[in-house]
Amino acid sequence: MALIILNKDIETTRGMLYPRESETREVRALDGIWNFVRSDEANPTQGIRDGWFNDDLSKSMPTIPMPVPASYNDITTEQALRDHVGTVWYDRKFFVPRSWGQHQRVWLRFGSVHYEAFVWINGQSAIKHEMGHLPFETEVTHLLKYGAENRITVMCDNALIQTTVPQGKISEVANDQGVTIIQSYTFDFFNYAGIHRSVHLYTTPKTFIEEVEIKTNLSEDNSVGTVNYSIAVNGTAANEADNTLYARLQLYSREGILVANATSDSKLLGSLKVENVKPWWPYLMHPDPGYLYELEIKLYAAKEQLLDVYRLSVGLRTLSWNNTSFLINGKPVYFRGFGRHEDADVRGKGLDNALMTRDFNLLKWIGANAYRTSHYPYSEESMQFADQHGIMIIDECPSVDTENFNQVLLDKHKSSLEQLVHRDRNHPSVVMWSIANEPRTGQLNADTYFQFVANFTRSLDSTRPITAAIAVPSKDDKAGRHLDIISFNRYNAWYSNTGRLDMVTQRVINEATAWNYKYDKPVIMAEYGADTLEGLHLQPSYVWSEEFQAEVFSQHFKAFDALRRQKWFIGEFVWNFADFKTAQSYTRVGGNKKGVFTRARQPKAAAHLLRQRYFALGREMDKCNLPSDLFTYIADVGSNVQHDSSDL
Ligand code: GCB
């Protein structure tokens, strides 16, 4: 293991726009049922050596049907596929219209494949990408047959080692028949794998809008907004005659009214001014949260020749922070939310629009205003949803339980953040970057390592604060000084002092205070909670029961209320939104059960308690309205009725 870690430059990626149709672009999803082969674990490169990509997979191996998008692990009834380590293969056929072969370019884009993907089109290598949960794309214009059938083949490798993000270990261990390959990892969620998000083919003109970066600002009284834009173009016209290109931008309100416009010069950057602006506000902080404008960008060549059109949603807001607070549009924010997972029965981490929509409905029902994308980037579709509903996001890269800091790991960790910032920088819902979850920041090298990671992230985006969710005791931590906001995770009455409800409140107060004392920065409790088996009721409360979860929460609420009086305590995040699958372990009953909702997205008893708190906080801080069903009617007890223990 290298002891000296250098802050080297990494191979840069581009800002990737979400594929959208327009006057100049077409989009086609390749989602559906693909053909699938599980490789022999002992011979993971067989498919490459035998050229399985040269023809239909079914000519090389028996295939089974596999849905895309979805994790492959829980689709069949086979333990061998659920626990498979190494490579799997997918393929399918598709037609490309003849019209796509003329005067345009075609791109292939994956929303995410976990963990490493190798892609061929008609037997020719198209792209390779390492890193789950993040999109990648390549031009396939030259690889496609137009007006004819094509084949796409994907090899996906789920192996995690000490230099992947996240880290894991592969070992060979004896079993009853001989030896077997085991994937182990310390993080607490199942290493689901496969083609997790949509696969798109899309067209662009020969010269097109490749990147757009938006930064917004508001005047001090929030009445005038500014949208600063910068556009990068790809294409022949761009190379040959840069100086003749320009862009026309038009900003439309939600109601479709033109509120600002601008024409750029050939540098393709500038700003638009919006009078009487409607700022983007978080849910419950304003009666009209998540207000989005639509920015229409038209790229022109000389003589008014329209080349490309791309539209994106824009929310206007400002963020600012100091050593006591975090403000949005000049107003202090108190986060009330969740750590979450992309996880569901059968489909694992595969994108599911029904589930995603249900989750946002539950977030709004419970009065949450934020979540952290623990412990990896979530789907682009969910980021768009969060923009629309005013849910604030702490956007986390896939670094979890990071240890044994080394150069290769650092380079990949930085790359994961670059890809994340490039993907998500235009989302108003993203209010903070989380550069890691529970890194071993007491270790040698953690200081330099996180200095490099934090500064690199800041160099990509200085408009958002940086945090990391830390679990080492504050006295041992070496990373916090490189962050803007300190987040800490702790399981009082669960992992420490199990069952002791009388040993929560003061400990939470003490720990948060210690973090603030050490770094003089705002502090968030990013995880707390208790595993809870739905339907298990025990009075007096006892670990794993629904009563216990509610009481653990309540003991934390007391601490949070005491801490809120210190201005620097700025948020509470329950672990977890819903129950989720983990690796097998005797501490997990069918997975991690710390969900406030079950895996089927139904509330446990504590959900009702949390709902009352989150709305009460919204009422106190942001004067939000309370839902009419927040408190259940019990009895009309007059205010002068006195009760004491003699009533019993
Ligand atoms: C943590 C981790 C999270 C786990 C959780 C738990 O500290 O950040 O990934 O799931 O604890 O329930 O143990």
Automatic annotation (TrEMBL):
The gene is Dvir\GJ19669. Its EC number is 3.2.1.31. Homotetramer. Plays an important role in the degradation of dermatan and keratan sulfates. One of its GO terms (biological process) is glucuronoside catabolic process. Residues 207-317 form the Glycoside hydrolase family 2 immunoglobulin-like beta-sandwich domain. It is an enzyme of class 3 (hydrolase). Inhibited by L-aspartic acid. Residues 323-615 form the Glycoside hydrolase family 2 catalytic domain. The lineage of its organism: Eukaryota, Metazoa, Ecdysozoa, Arthropoda, Hexapoda. This is Beta-glucuronidase. SUPFAM superfamilies: (Trans)glycosidases, beta-Galactosidase/glucuronidase domain, Galactose-binding domain-like. It catalyses: a beta-D-glucuronoside + H2O = D-glucuronate + an alcohol. Gene3D superfamilies: Galactose-binding domain-like, Glycosidases, Immunoglobulins. Residues 28-205 form the Glycosyl hydrolases family 2 sugar binding domain. It is found in: Lysosome. Keywords: Glycoprotein, Glycosidase, Hydrolase, Lysosome, Signal. GO terms for molecular function: beta-glucuronidase activity; carbohydrate binding.
